């Protein structure tokens, strides 16, 4: 997740769009969301002018908390908040398989403001959205789900410190309870989260969000517990 200043600024602009869309949809508290979007705007402005910007600090933690909340309310289609901000390239075979064993297709999401740094959306042919990853961030080398925990093993150790959180994802209208963000140190090779108890009926997914150095990744698996 290492980019130039304008790439970093563009990603924060996109994140601000995502937060404001979540507030507009009634999925995120308005006061907290507007404050977070304003912080992301300031971060984008600072990045674009080359001003020193705090990395891996409160901003990343706040974005991680936002993602965990959204995953607990929105279900699998978080990237829909960015409709209109991205172009979609044709899907392609990746040769990779999801935790469920089925094939993963890859789709590049091309930000209109940063076309050279597309995000990558991995779609499972069975489960739908599986990973949403920043440009250059490889899919996990291994995912393990047992009754107590989800473990996501990264393809390479993290260069920077980060934050992660997780939630069950609803299929239907109820809301799950997200976990609070937890810190990851530079060099971390995996994240592991306990699987929280869900309150609602029906099938669910489980999702983890990772924020490192101002960008985010989402990992989604079917909840078979
Ligand atoms: Zn799957």
What would you say this structure looks like, in words?
It is a single chain. It is built from 3 helices and 12 strands, in the order H-H-H-E-E-E-E-E-E-E-E-E-E-E-E. The mean pLDDT is 87. The protein has 225 residues and is an alpha+beta fold. It is globular, with a radius of gyration of 16 Å. Residues 98, 100, 102, 124, 126-127 line the site of zinc ion.
Reconstruct the topology from this structure:
Elements: H1 5-24, H2 30-48, H3 58-74, E1 86-88, E2 92-97, E3 103-111, E4 119-124, E5 128-133, E6 142-145, E7 149-153, E8 162-169, E9 182-184, E10 190-194, E11 205-212, E12 215-222
Antiparallel strand pairs: 1-3, 2-3, 3-4, 4-5, 5-12, 6-7, 7-10, 8-9, 8-11, 11-12
Helix pairs in contact: 1-2, 2-3
The structure holds zinc ion (ZN).
Précis, in short:
The protein has helices at residues 5-24, 30-48, 58-74; strands at residues 86-88, 92-97, 103-111, 119-124, 128-133, 142-145, 149-153, 162-169, 182-184, 190-194, 205-212, 215-222.
Structural class call reads alpha+beta
Estimate nothing, just give the exact number of structural domains: 1
String of helices and strands = HHHEEEEEEEEEEEE
Shape: globular
- The portion of residues forming beta strands comes to 25-35%
Q: How many beta-strand runs?
A: 12
Sheet with most strands:
9 strands, antiparallel
Q: Which cofactor or ligand species appear?
A: zinc ion
Q: Give the fraction of residues assigned to helices.
A: 10-25%
Secondary structure tally, helices = 3
Radius of gyration: 16 Å
Mean pLDDT: 87
Catalogue the unreliable spans: none
Terminal Cα span: 32 Å
